[in-house]
């Protein structure tokens, strides 16, 4: 547990340096992995799990996936390019999300380790 | 009223029953009640005293089944101890009703429960008034109006009501059931075991191999007692793991006998309140022949049988080598909830010439080969027939002030008895896509007209089975097609996890003439 905390702190500090941030304390606060999911994304968690790791067998793991891939998938659910079967469930979930919200959620899930 | 009290056994006593020391019960006989109905007491179809008894049975005579059904307090001994349940006719489960297509059910119904307590919620989607009730004929294609299959009725304590249910001549034959359906108290009453099998004879029954087989009725239930006596709160039945001790025909871990080489026909009803019941019998062959009463294309050997609350399945079970076998529900996940294994019954395969079985007892030996008979009116619905398509979205919301701050929704709305959610007309043929936004499966049941299942999670079902209750998987979808035939009027579609129904997961369907 201790080790995990240290690792996560180290990762966020590296991220902070790369992002050009000066103060590590600010970097920790900005770390998406330690930030709660935006309110408009809270509905994702019931099936995809609190950290993007689902407890349901047929629900994919989206934690740590590339945000660009996640955003693309969400846009395709919204537009109906991905349809039928469980894609219909996703279409219901994303139909009212703006593109900014889609990007924000993709970054949040992508940042979950 | 039957004089024979159905018994269940303490967990300690169940150990005795496993060693063969089950208490003696009485074998039944047929008697006619003034030409109104024939009654059969609970009995073993093999005539063996410690065998599982079929529930008591009431059958029609000359096209009529006229009998008394009442809801009242029933003293029982559950595996968890003695308690009092709300049951039909002092019987757990209620008596089996057996009729033919074209018959009329005339049930003089009486609510013998005492007055409701005064402090009842007035909000429609908070469980309330557990002593108010009514009757629903699950799977029946009959009128939803007046004194027929009308689930909007409130039959109050002390009230009587005469149901007259005219079953059409071309009604599909099969295994159906009846249970209370008053919104607000349906989960509490069914969770306590208020339910019974209803059989419409024909179709499969006339297949020679099935006709010569012994017939069993198995009603699976896990009655939930009140915390201190009579159940007067939804709390004990609310958690998905609330159902603990599953019974068959009111018996805990009963014995079921099959003779060596024998094929028995079992009509199985899942009358539980919430948990799914997948089951298997290690070492014995199970062939499915019908689901929700409707025949499958042919008898099909299955590893595991899947039942959600409300479903029926007709199976043939073959007795192989003499010995003891276990009928069990394996460990499984119901959505996000892990549920424990259940040891439901002990199957004993006995010698073919066992002297306890009276001479003349039916002895089926064959599994039917080739196609099973159709129910003639259940013809495949083609693409060209579809007159309308709809999307039905299943959801759940946290809303302060409701039971456990929970509201279940369909198309984002909890149940409103005044709102018509679906309006269509007689003769319409519709395709509905059910979309489940929640992490739990919901077995969805629609009244009056059965539907043909096209796909689950986008995977087409080659059998396109006719059902009346279908589990929509967690975060999954189901597509079904249905014809609105013969009966106009208002009725409902809802989740058969009944605590979900009572907290909002139900809509009104209004079929205009
Ligand atoms: Cu449900």
UniProtKB/TrEMBL annotation, chain A:
<keyword id="KW-0479">Metal-binding</keyword>
<dbReference type="Pfam" id="PF00034">
    <property type="entry name" value="Cytochrom_C"/>
</dbReference>
<dbReference type="InterPro" id="IPR036909">
    <property type="entry name" value="Cyt_c-like_dom_sf"/>
</dbReference>
<dbReference type="InterPro" id="IPR009056">
    <property type="entry name" value="Cyt_c-like_dom"/>
</dbReference>
<protein>
    <submittedName>
        <fullName>Cytochrome C4</fullName>
    </submittedName>
</protein>
<keyword id="KW-0408">Iron</keyword>
<dbReference type="InterPro" id="IPR050597">
    <property type="entry name" value="Cytochrome_c_Oxidase_Subunit"/>
</dbReference>
<keyword id="KW-0349">Heme</keyword>
<feature type="domain" description="Cytochrome c">
    <location>
        <begin position="29"/>
        <end position="113"/>
    </location>
</feature>
<keyword id="KW-0249">Electron transport</keyword>
<feature type="signal peptide">
    <location>
        <begin position="1"/>
        <end position="29"/>
    </location>
</feature>
<keyword id="KW-0813">Transport</keyword>
<keyword id="KW-0732">Signal</keyword>
TrEMBL record, chain B:
<feature type="domain" description="Plastocyanin-like">
    <location>
        <begin position="254"/>
        <end position="330"/>
    </location>
</feature>
<dbReference type="InterPro" id="IPR045087">
    <property type="entry name" value="Cu-oxidase_fam"/>
</dbReference>
<feature type="domain" description="Plastocyanin-like">
    <location>
        <begin position="401"/>
        <end position="512"/>
    </location>
</feature>
<dbReference type="Pfam" id="PF00394">
    <property type="entry name" value="Cu-oxidase"/>
</dbReference>
<keyword id="KW-0560">Oxidoreductase</keyword>
<dbReference type="Pfam" id="PF07732">
    <property type="entry name" value="Cu-oxidase_3"/>
</dbReference>
<dbReference type="InterPro" id="IPR011706">
    <property type="entry name" value="Cu-oxidase_C"/>
</dbReference>
<feature type="signal peptide">
    <location>
        <begin position="1"/>
        <end position="27"/>
    </location>
</feature>
<protein>
    <submittedName>
        <fullName>Multicopper oxidase family protein</fullName>
    </submittedName>
</protein>
<dbReference type="InterPro" id="IPR011707">
    <property type="entry name" value="Cu-oxidase-like_N"/>
</dbReference>
<keyword id="KW-0479">Metal-binding</keyword>
<dbReference type="InterPro" id="IPR001117">
    <property type="entry name" value="Cu-oxidase_2nd"/>
</dbReference>
<dbReference type="InterPro" id="IPR006311">
    <property type="entry name" value="TAT_signal"/>
</dbReference>
<dbReference type="InterPro" id="IPR002355">
    <property type="entry name" value="Cu_oxidase_Cu_BS"/>
</dbReference>
<feature type="domain" description="Plastocyanin-like">
    <location>
        <begin position="122"/>
        <end position="201"/>
    </location>
</feature>
<dbReference type="InterPro" id="IPR008972">
    <property type="entry name" value="Cupredoxin"/>
</dbReference>
<keyword id="KW-0732">Signal</keyword>
<dbReference type="Pfam" id="PF07731">
    <property type="entry name" value="Cu-oxidase_2"/>
</dbReference>
């Amino acid at each position: 547990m201790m080790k995990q905390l240290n690792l996560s702190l180290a990762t966020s500090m590296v991220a902070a340096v790369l992002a050009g941030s000066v103060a590590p304390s600010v970097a920790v606060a900005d770390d998406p992995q330690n930030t709660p999911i935006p309110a408009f994304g809270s509905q994702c968690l019931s099936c995809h799990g609190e950290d993007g790791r689902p407890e349901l067998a047929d629900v994919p793991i989206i934690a740590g996936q590339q945000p660009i891939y996640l955003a693309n998938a969400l846009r395709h659910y919204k537009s109906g390019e991905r349809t039928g079967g469980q894609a219909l469930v996703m279409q219901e979930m994303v139909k009212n999300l703006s593109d900014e919200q889609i990007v924000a959620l993709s970054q949040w899930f992508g940042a979950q380790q | 009223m039957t004089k024979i009290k159905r018994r269940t056994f303490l967990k300690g006593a169940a150990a005795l029953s496993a060693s063969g020391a089950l208490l003696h019960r009485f074998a039944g006989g047929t008697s006619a009640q003034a030409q109104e109905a024939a009654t059969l007491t609970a009995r073993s179809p093999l005539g063996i005293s410690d065998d599982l008894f079929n529930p008591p049975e009431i059958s029609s005579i000359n096209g009529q089944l006229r009998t008394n059904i009442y809801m009242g307090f029933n003293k029982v001994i559950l595996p968890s101890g003695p308690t009092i349940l709300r049951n039909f006719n002092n019987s757990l489960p209620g008596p089996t009703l057996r009729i033919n297509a074209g018959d009329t059910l005339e049930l003089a119904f009486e609510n013998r429960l005492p007055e409701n307590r005064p402090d009842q919620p007035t909000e429609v989607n908070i469980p309330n008034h557990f002593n108010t009730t009514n009757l629903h004929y699950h799977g029946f294609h009959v009128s939803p109006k007046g004194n027929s299959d009308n689930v909007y009725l409130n039959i109050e304590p002390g009230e009587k009501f005469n149901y007259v249910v005219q079953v059409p001549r071309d009604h599909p034959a099969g295994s159906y059931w009846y249970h209370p359906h008053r919104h607000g108290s349906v989960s509490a009453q069914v969770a306590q075991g208020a339910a019974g099998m209803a059989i419409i004879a024909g179709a499969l029954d006339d297949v020679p191999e099935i006709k010569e087989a012994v017939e069993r009725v198995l009603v699976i239930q896990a009655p939930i007692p009140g915390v201190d006596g009579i159940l007067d709160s939804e709390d004990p039945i609310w958690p998905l793991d609330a159902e603990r001790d599953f019974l068959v025909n009111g018996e805990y871990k009963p014995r079921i006998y099959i003779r060596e080489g024998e094929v028995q026909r079992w009509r199985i009803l899942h009358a539980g309140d919430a948990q799914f019941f997948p089951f298997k019998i290690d070492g014995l062959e199970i062939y499915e022949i019908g689901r929700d009463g409707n025949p499958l294309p042919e008898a099909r050997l299955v590893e595991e049988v899947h039942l959600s609350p409300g479903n029926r399945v007709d199976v043939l079970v073959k007795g192989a080598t003499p010995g003891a076998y276990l009928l069990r529900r394996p460990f499984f996940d119901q959505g996000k909830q892990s549920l424990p294994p259940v040891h439901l019954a002990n199957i004993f395969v006995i010698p073919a010439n066992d002297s306890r079985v009276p001479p003349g007892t039916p002895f089926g030996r064959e599994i039917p080969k080739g196609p099973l008979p159709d129910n003639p009116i259940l013809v495949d619905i083609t693409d060209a027939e579809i007159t309308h398509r709809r999307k039905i979205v299943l959801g759940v919301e946290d809303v302060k002030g409701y039971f456990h701050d929970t509201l279940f929704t369909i198309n984002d709305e909890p149940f409103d008895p005044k709102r018509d959610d679906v309006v269509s007309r007689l003769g319409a043929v519709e395709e509905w896509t059910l979309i489940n936004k929640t992490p739990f499966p919901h077995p969805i049941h629609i009244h009056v007209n059965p539907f043909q299942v096209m796909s689950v999670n986008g995977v087409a079902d080659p059998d396109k089975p006719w059902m009346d209750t279908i589990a929509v998987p967690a975060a999954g979808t189901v597509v079904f097609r249905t014809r609105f035939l013969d009966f106009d009027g208002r009725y409902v579609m809802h989740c058969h996890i009944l605590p979900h129904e009572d907290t909002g997961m139900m809509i009104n369907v209004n079929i205009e003439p």
